[in-house]
Amino acid sequence: MASHLTDTTVLGNGVRMPWLGLGVWKVTEGQEVEHAVRTAIETGYRSIDTAAVYGNEEGVGRAIRDSGVSRDELFVTTKVWNADQGYDSTLAAYEQSLGKLGLEYVDLYLIHWPVKGKYKDTWKALEHLYEQGRVRAIGVSNFHVHHLDDLLQDAVVKPMVNQVEYHPRLSQRPLLAYCQKNGIQMEAWSPLMQGKELISHELLVGLGQKYGKSPAQIILRWDLQNGVVTIPKSVTPSRIRENADIFDFQLSAEDMSLIDGLNLDTRVGADPDNFNF
């Protein structure tokens, strides 16, 4: 089990991916995103997760170049947006993202949402990029089990990652079991439920007191102990550091199951079966 900020999980193709990264959804392009990414890298984070639609790839790239950390020590994720899905348009979108990031390659390229009638052609484009050595790993985001089943029918390369909304109110047990059985690494976006009622929940507050940690740290540790990579988003330096301070304790099996009991199948984001963007 992960015991250090630089610890990694091994993806299906042997590539190592850090267990903890910084998410930059809704972080403004320019100084805000650059400062967040620089703070994270200085703290010891080695994984940064962005996306074309976030509009901040340029700032992420600048912060990476200014960090003084060599490129091969970092793990950079970006995603193809829905409007760009399809074979040729995905290849073009990848080049655009690379140009904005100012990088030679990305470590992980994801299909952002399962756009009906398009995600299979999009996947073929990702397979092409992967086979050309342009990207170190490929995967999907917001895919349910049935989307994965459908994709795997024609896929030559199996997705290495499925990044989904995941937190104690949406524990997605069947999806997690499916991913683990099929060698697909699950990754949590919105692990803290965007700071909604979870952080003040009495169970998590109580567990925080028991372990000498914040409720957020308890949740992030729960992610890791369930074998789920996590990318909490923050622009506050103290919070970025706090989110990384989860490797010096372990939740007991009993406390893990208490947190499991918080599941209500509640989403803060869209349902992958019913989105209109």
Automatic annotation (TrEMBL):
InterPro entries named among the record's database cross-references:
AKR, AKR5G, Aldo/ket_reductase_CS, NAD(P)_OxRdtase_dom_sf, NADP_OxRdtase_dom
Which terms are listed as keywords in the entry? Answer: NADP, Oxidoreductase
Q: Where is this site: Lowers pKa of active site Tyr?
A: 79
What's a Pfam family in this record?
Answer: Aldo_ket_red
Q: Which residues bind substrate per the record?
A: 112
Q: Which residues form the NADP-dependent oxidoreductase domain?
A: 20-263
Supply the Gene3D superfamilies for this chain: NADP-dependent oxidoreductase domain
Q: Which GO terms describe its molecular function?
A: oxidoreductase activity, acting on the CH-OH group of donors, NAD or NADP as acceptor
Q: Where is the active site?
A: 54
- Domain of life, source organism: Bacteria
Bilayer-crossing regions: none
| Cross-referenced CDD domains | AKR_AKR5G1-3 (cd19157)
What PANTHER family does the record tag this protein with? Answer: 2,5-DIKETO-D-GLUCONIC ACID REDUCTASE, NADP-DEPENDENT OXIDOREDUCTASE DOMAIN-CONTAINING PROTEIN
Q: Which family does it belong to?
A: Belongs to the aldo/keto reductase family.
Q: What is this protein called?
A: Aldo/keto reductase
